[in-house]
Structures are given as C-alpha cells and as structure tokens.
C-alpha cells in the first residue's frame, strides 16, 4: 500500500524530535495509521531499540513494518498499558499520539467520515465497534442528541439541529444528513458547520474523549524519568485535555501543590508555546492546518 496516500504524517520532524529519542530506547506510537511517524522513529533507533504501535483500525494492519524491532497491536490506545505489560514492557522512553482521523479514513466513502463523499452513517474508527453514527442519529433521544452536538461539536444551534434530525429520521447516509442540515447557517459557513456536526457524531461513536483521558493518564504512569510524550491534536477539545494534563496532571488544569509549594504533576511542558505547522506544510497537506503539537517530559 502507498503509505503516503494512506496518511501524510503531520508535523513529522517536530513530533519525533520532541521525543528526544535514545537509540536503544523503547517507544510507542499509539496512532500507527500509515506508519509515517513509526518509520521515522525506527530510523533513529539502533538494533536494541524497540517500537510498539497501536491502531484499532484493521485497515492500518496492511501498512505493518517488517522489522524485528517493531510490534503492531490492533487495539485502541486506551488499552496501551495492559497490552504493553502483556509484551513485558512496564516503562517506556517516549510515546507519540497523532490524534483524529487518518486521510485514508476520510477518503474512504464507505467509512462515513467525509462531508464530501456519500456513504453510510458509520464513523467508527474500529469497524467492529458497537456504536455508529447511524445509531446516534436514529436512536438517541432528542435531548441526548442535542447534548452530543453541543458538547463535542460546540454548536450553538444544537437544539434546533437535533429537532430537525428527529423530524427527518430515519437517516441512512451522510448526504441524507447533510441535506437535512441545509439552511441552518449562511453558505459561507456551511462546510465548517457540517464538519462540526460530523465531529460531534464521530467523537461520540468512538468515545474519543474518554479514550484520550485514559491514554494520557496511562502515559504519565508508563514513561520513564525524562521520557517524553508527544501529542498532535486537531481541535480544541483534544488540545485542552492535552494542555491541562501536561500542565497540571489533571483535565481541569488546576495545579495542585505539595507542602513546599511545588506543583504535583507527572510531566512538565517542554515547549512554552504550542507548535503548529509551517505555511509550507499546510500548502502541501491542507489537513495539517488545525494541528497543534504539545510535548511533555516525565519529571
């Protein structure tokens, strides 16, 4: 498979540089996808180095890397700690996460992620997952659907959107949903509005925020002293969790201090400012435009 077309890695150099790789270290890429970040990590490891990768999407298994230092685990990264322990690993030197949806998932109409291609209302990152966008759109009570749209899509029109969906269901395809949503916002805002609705449904279907919180807490516990966590996020909900965890060790962002006034947190931010793609990278890969990279180091 052409791994570049599967997913063009975002902030590749900056995210791997952020790991401060030791040639004989143990590293984890929890969002393998097309394998671009994993290949860069492997290029910096020597014979004794090891890399474990996670991806819950079976399509990603086609991109596996034939390298004795590499192990690909077909699981959600929320189970990172348990699966690493199964492989005899209790501590690692660095963890990378490139959150969100891969280019392959967006471009495969049958997965239902894209607002531009007609496909089934699916949006499951793991095609064997129990909850799909179809279930949410067609089975959720109106108040629950409204809450999902507000919480995960940050939509001001959440109640009106939920009401219109209720009146027009059952809905089977992405284009049927988009047609139902027409007229809520001016044409200039339409694509962003549709993307917010799809984001909300996708996050709910995959429990992305719950999985991210579990992963971050496990990362702090799994990292060796001076180990690095490098996370690329694509929307404010993800970035807020990552920022707060790296700053305060919790998701509220409230720093707790010990008796001596020292902050109680497992990590310290490596960069004072969030890292974003250059204009040149965005010109090559438009999907990089909203990416934000944060790097933390285990204290």
What does this structure look like?
This protein has 299 residues and is an alpha/beta fold. It has two domains: 3-103 and 208-298, Rossmann fold, CATH 3.40.50; 132-205, Orthogonal Bundle (DNA polymerase, domain 1). The chain contains 13 helices and seven strands. A seven-stranded mixed beta sheet has the order 3-2-1-4-5-7-6, sandwiched between helices. Helix 2 crosses helix 3. The longest helix is centred in the middle third of the chain and has 17 residues, at 190-206.
Secondary-structure topology with pairs:
Blueprint: H1 3-6, H2 12-18, E1 26-29, H3 36-43, E2 50-54, E3 70-73, H4 80-86, E4 92-98, H5 103-107, H6 133-139, H7 142-153, H8 158-168, H9 174-181, H10 190-206, H11 208-222, E5 223-233, H12 236-248, E6 267-269, H13 279-284, E7 292-298
Parallel strand pairs: 1-2, 1-4, 2-3, 4-5
Antiparallel strand pairs: 5-7, 6-7
Helix pairs in contact: 2-3, 7-8, 7-10, 11-12
Low-confidence stretches: none
Give the helices and strands as they follow along the chain.
HHEHEEHEHHHHHHHEHEHE
**Rg (CA only):** 20 Å
Q: Kindly report the spatial arrangement of strands forming the biggest sheet.
A: 3-2-1-4-5-7-6
Q: Tally the structural domains.
A: 2
What's the total count of β strands?
7
The mean pLDDT is 95
Shape: globular
CATH level 1 name of the largest domain: Alpha Beta
**CATH topology grouping of the largest domain:** Rossmann fold
- Helix/strand-derived category reads alpha/beta
Q: Tell me the name of the CATH homologous superfamily of the largest domain.
A: Vaccinia Virus protein VP39
Give the termini separation.
40 Å
Proportion in β-strands = 5-15%
Number of helices: 13
State the major sheet.
7 strands, mixed
Helix content: 40-55%
Query: In the CATH hierarchy, what is the architecture of the largest domain at level 2?
Result: 3-Layer(aba) Sandwich
């Amino acid at each position: 498979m052409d791994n570049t077309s599967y997913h063009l890695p975002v902030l590749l150099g900056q995210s791997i540089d952020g790991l401060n790789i030791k040639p004989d270290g143990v590293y984890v890429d929890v969002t393998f996808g097309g394998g671009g970040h994993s290949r860069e990590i492997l290029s910096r490891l020597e014979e004794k180095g090891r890399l474990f990768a996670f991806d819950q999407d079976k399509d990603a298994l086609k991109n596996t890397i034939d390298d004795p230092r590499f192990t690909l685990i077909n699981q959600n990264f929320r189970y990172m700690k348990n699966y690493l322990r199964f492989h005899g690993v209790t501590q690692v030197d660095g963890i990378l996460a490139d959150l969100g949806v891969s280019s392959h998932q967006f471009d495969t109409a049958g997965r239902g992620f894209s607002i531009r291609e007609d496909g089934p209302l699916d949006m499951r990152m793991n095609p064997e997952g129990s909850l799909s966008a179809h279930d949410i759109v067609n089975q959720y009570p109106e108040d629950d659907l409204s809450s999902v749209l507000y919480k995960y899509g940050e939509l001001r029109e959440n109640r009106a959107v939920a009401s219109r969906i209720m009146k027009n269901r059952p809905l089977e395809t992405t284009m049927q949903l988009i047609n139902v949503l027409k007229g809520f916002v001016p044409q200039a805002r339409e694509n962003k509005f549709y993307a917010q609705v799809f984001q909300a449904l996708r996050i709910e279907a995959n429990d992305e925020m719950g999985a991210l919180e579990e992963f971050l807490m496990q990362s702090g516990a799994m990292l060796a002293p001076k180990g690095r966590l490098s996370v690329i996020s694509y929307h404010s909900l993800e970035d807020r969790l990552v920022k707060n965890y790296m700053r305060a060790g919790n998701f509220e962002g409230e720093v707790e201090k010990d008796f001596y006034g020292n902050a109680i947190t497992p990590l310290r931010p490596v960069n004072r400012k969030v890292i974003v793609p250059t204009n040149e990278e965005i010109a090559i890969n438009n999907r990089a435009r909203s990416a934000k990279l944060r790097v933390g180091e285990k204290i």
